[in-house]
Amino acid sequence: MSARPFKGGRLVVASHNAGKLREIRDLLAPFGVDAVSAGDLGLPEPEETGSSFIANAELKALAAATAAGLPALADDSGLAVDALAGDPGIYSARWAGPARDFALAMRKVWQALPPDCGDRRAHFVSVLTLAWPDGHRESFEGRVHGHLTWPPRGDRGFGYDPMFVPDGFDITFGEMEPALKHTISHRAVAFRQLIDACFRR
User: Fold this and answer.
1) For residue 72, what are the β-bridge partners?
2) Other residues' Cβ atoms within 10 Å of the Cβ of residue 47
3) DSSP label at 170?
4) C-alpha dist (Å) from residue 142 to 7, 154, 169, 190
5) What are φ and ψ of residue 5, in 5° steps?
6) Whole-prediction pTM value?
7) Which of 60-74 are b and which e, b meaning 16 or more Cβ less than 10 Å from the residue's Cβ?
8) Smallest Cα–Cα separation from 134: which of 2, 4, 1, 33?
9) Mind listing the pLDDT tens digit of every residue in the chain (201 residues)?
């Protein structure tokens, strides 16, 4: 069954995270989408009560689409660390606390690793959900694998980017030019699936 196409016009980006908004807008730019953020429309952030990335992405997209009466795109993403049994996972933002202090979150992750831990493998996950006001939604998942490094390096990107080195590179996402990150990141992988399914008509 084919995915529902996005017909153009205005699209709500269901996020209040400035870094995430910037990345999604950059990815949408070539398609002439009139992207407006949930924050710009004064929409509240729904509580993320799902038990998976896809559940939370769908929850956020449907809430924004229903409230705005427009198609909405939501992302739920996070860092999964092998040695921590996949944590912080869907709780990645919560590890940063109410102030969204990701310097604190990165330190928590590093300190949670077992002493002399030889396994620093990790991956980022992103699920993008495009939802319509009638409740229809399309969801796509992307992953990028790599390893953790300490201390964090670079001031580009956001979140856990400065401590994550993707496979095939010796620099962190925090050191990487945005244009390069947009070609290899977990969000980029999910976005390519979204574009192929819903935008190329």
Assistant:
1) 12, 131
2) 10
3) S
4) 24, 23, 18, 4
5) -80, 150
6) 0.90
7) bbbbbbbbbebbbbb
8) 4
9) 578 988 878 899 998 877 778 888 888 888 878 888 898 888 988 888 899 999 999 999 999 999 999 999 999 999 999 999 999 999 999 999 999 999 999 999 999 998 888 889 999 999 999 999 999 999 999 999 999 999 999 999 889 999 999 999 999 999 999 999 989 999 999 999 999 999 865
Task: State the catalytic residues.
Answer: 76
Single-letter code of the amino acid located at 63? A
Ordered structural domains, the chain, with CATH: 10-199 (3.90.950.10)
Q: Which of 144, 108, 140 is nearest to 123 (CA)?
A: 144
CB 113 within 8 A of CB 120: yes
CA angle 79, 171, 144 (to 5 degrees): 35
